[in-house]
Design brief:
By secondary structure, the chain is of the alpha/beta class. 38% of the residues lie in helices and 17% in strands. A hairpin with a 2-residue loop joins strand 10 (342-345) and strand 11 (348-351). It binds fe (ii) ion.
């Protein structure tokens, strides 16, 4: 699956250790006039201006010890009139609400030692899911409505049987909940099996030579544990189970293309949205949209590798509550790495991108002398490469020297996105935690 890039276009396809005591408590997401809303309820934020002098910071922080309150975030910068006052502004986020006696005591003590103290308001950010099951309220509207087959050049446009089949499979996705025991299995038709039988063995011939080692390793595991075989279409449930037992990722079936925000937000919970239908049998090597083959052959194996899956997770976490303007930037980053990324391996370019590994045309083209190859720099990709073809092969690809290099440049870019809070994923509780008081409000982009 790929996030939708732009309406009307068809896409192919300061984190630190946080102790238990610094978990954010958010009110559950609730329907509020049909809009989603949440507010963290147990954090206080303030700015304290302290004159630069020996031991003053220790003295200020000692107040939190005195009242047994945990700081969740601290940041400092010279105050506006530093040259004259020699004072610093300290931005402090800590546990507790204004009504708590300990919080009032802290404010009182800090006021006595500071030049100014300002109690901060609650920034509003675009709503985002705060626990795994919030995702059940997302993905209910896909771009293109209904079956997604609206365009005359879609191979299935005039095939009523195919359209009805797509609707049947889409309805399964709409009804699915992450609380369900398993993803419903599809009994694939002979036409659908024929598409798989045509594509999988042929694509597989490319993998040994052109895919990164990690991909080839997991394809073997998928054949052993997930029903990958030349004469069998694998089931999302089997792949999801395997992923949960290895990297903690899971699959959620989806009816079609999601908004960028919904698609990326799910990645923060290690949830990958996957279509379950198969492209039209008349053109087995072509699909104008992501389908099961793209998802399970392209994305599946890389989600089973801890290192590569981390790239998707970082992009997912960065998308939570991020300003709208950063969504297409994250989209470009995802496109040129997770979808079309290349990585050097023993001096050779190898593919790890799902859009390459699931496409005959892309596999031939990207290992020819035709395209340009650029070094992966996340800032450059996000700022200068947000326009790219979605229905032809890529004119250029971004290559990283190693997975670690790709991770580092993506991490740096994600950390640079301005956001009023920091966010952490709690693997055990499948929740995200924020380090300050915020309100999540549903917006058009949510
Ligand atoms: Fe994709």
């Amino acid at each position: 699956m790929s996030p939708a890039i732009k309406a009307g276009k068809r896409p192919f396809c300061m984190v630190s250790e946080m102790s238990q005591s610094t978990q954010a408590h958010t009110t559950p997401s609730v329907a509020l006039n049909s809009k989603k809303y949440f507010e963290t309820t147990d954090k206080t934020s303030l700015i304290v201006t302290l004159k630069d002098s020996q031991g003053i910071l220790n003295k200020a922080l000692g107040v939190f010890d005195k009242y047994g309150v945990c700081l969740t975030h601290i940041q400092s910068k010279p105050s506006k009139f530093y040259k004259k006052t020699k004072a610093y502004d300290f931005y402090l986020d800590f546990e507790g609400c204004y009504e708590d006696e300990s919080v009032r005591n802290i404010i009182s003590d800090l006021s006595k030692m500071s030049k100014h103290l300002t109690l901060c308001g609650t920034p509003q950010v675009p709503w985002f899911p705060t626990n795994l099951y919030d995702l059940d309220s997302t993905g209910k509207e896909i771009l293109g409505e209904g079956t997604g087959i609206q365009e005359a050049d879609h191979p299935g446009f005039r095939d009523e049987v195919y359209k009805s089949r797509r609707k049947y499979i889409s309805d399964i996705a709409y009804k699915y909940s992450l609380r369900d025991e398993e993803i419903p299995r599809i009994e694939y038709t002979d036409d659908e099996l024929g598409v798989w039988q045509h594509c999988y063995p042929k694509l597989k011939k490319h993998f040994q030579k052109n895919a990164v080692k990690e991909y080839n390793d997991t394809i073997k595991q998928f054949e052993e544990h997930c029903g990958f075989a030349e004469d069998n279409v694998p089931q999302l449930e089997d792949i999801s189970q395997y992923l949960q037992n290895t990297t903690g990722w899971r699959i959620r079936p989806v009816a079609g293309l999601l908004s960028q925000r919904e698609f990326f937000n799910a990645l923060a919970f290690k949830v990958f949205h996957s279509t379950q239908y198969i492209r039209h049998h008349s053109v087995p090597e072509y699909t104008p949209e992501p389908d099961l083959l793209h998802e399970v052959i392209g994305h599946g194996p890389m989600l089973a590798n801890e290192d590569y899956a981390e790239l998707s997770h970082m992009i997912g976490l960065a998308s939570l509550g991020c300003p709208d303007k950063y969504l297409p930037r994250l989209g470009a980053l995802y496109w040129f790495t997770i979808e079309f990324g290349l990585c050097m391996e023993a001096g050779q370019r190898k593919a790890y991108g799902a859009g390459i590994l699931s496409s005959f045309g892309e596999l031939d083209w990207c290992f020819s002398d035709g395209p340009k190859f650029l070094n992966l720099d996340a800032e450059d990709v996000a700022e200068n490469h947000r326009d790219y073809p979605i229905s032809t092969v890529q004119p250029y690809y971004f290559v990283s020297d190693s997975w670690a290099d790709a991770r580092e440049t993506i991490r740096q870019y994600c950390d640079s996105i301005p956001r009023a809070f920091n966010v952490f994923y709690n693997e055990e509780s499948k929740t995200v935690e924020v380090d300050r008081k915020i309100k999540g409000i549903y917006t058009e982009s949510t």
